[in-house]
Design a protein that fits this description.
The chain is an all-alpha fold. About 75% of the residues lie in helices and about 0% in strands. The chain is built from 11 helices and no strands. It has helices at about 1-10, 15-30, 30-45, 50-60, 65-80, 85-95, 105-115, 120-130, 135-145, 150-165, 170-180. Helix 3 (about 30-45) packs antiparallel against helix 4 (about 50-60), helix 4 (about 50-60) packs parallel to helix 6 and helix 9 (about 135-145) packs antiparallel against helix 10 (about 150-165).
Length: about 190
């Protein structure tokens, strides 16, 4: 069966990041128990690895246990303060919890490491959109679509920002772009 295959795969691997990758695959397959088991094995083998700790954070974020996800992401960040996956995970969790003031510090840190991250730019746009600074939200989403012009979520968020600014022509242009794009690569972006 699939879980035995993946368990064998990670046992043979010498890469810590394989544990969080395989756990993510198991989570997607709704094999939550196997995902957690793989992460626990990875944590025993690599107790000070930022990616393994991030795997736990991602697992708990997917389960909507955002406080636990933040705890593990913070553990990951104590190992590697510039680990962008964990920075983005924390900002995503705060966004989903509605704790807006905590989003930007993590988003800004993430973008300082790599300014071309759609996830971080969407979180930044989410913050500005929700505090009604639509011009700044629009700017974040414009950067996002410049990086990945196939992200329906980014185009949708940009359209929403234009709409709130009463720029209906650009809003409509962006909404049509959403309809034109067939694949949504950015499944976890925030919708508004």
């Amino acid at each position: 069966n699939a879980s035995k295959f993946w368990a064998h795969y990670v046992e043979q691997s010498d890469r810590a990041e394989d544990y969080s990758m395989v756990a993510s695959n198991m989570y997607s397959a709704e094999r939550y128990d196997v995902a957690m088991e793989i992460l626990q094995i990875g944590d025993k083998m690599y107790p000070n690895n930022a990616d393994v700790k991030y795997g736990f954070a991602q697992h708990y974020a997917n389960a909507k246990d955002y406080k636990k996800a933040i705890e593990y992401a913070q553990e990951s960040l104590s190992i590697d303060p510039n680990y962008t996956k964990s920075l983005n995970c924390v900002s995503e969790c705060y966004a989903r919890m509605g704790i807006l003031d905590s989003i930007l510090p993590y988003t800004n840190r993430s973008l300082a490491v790599d300014e071309k991250q759609n996830i971080a730019l969407n979180h930044m746009g989410f913050y500005y959109y929700n505090v009604h600074e639509f011009d700044k939200a629009k700017e974040a989403y414009e950067k996002s679509v410049a990086i990945d012009s196939t992200s329906r979520d980014s185009w949708y968020n940009l359209a929403s920002s234009y709409y709130c600014m009463a720029d209906y022509n650009n809003a409509l242009r962006c909404y049509y772009k959403v309809l034109d794009i067939k694949n949504n690569k950015d499944k976890d972006a925030l919708y508004y």
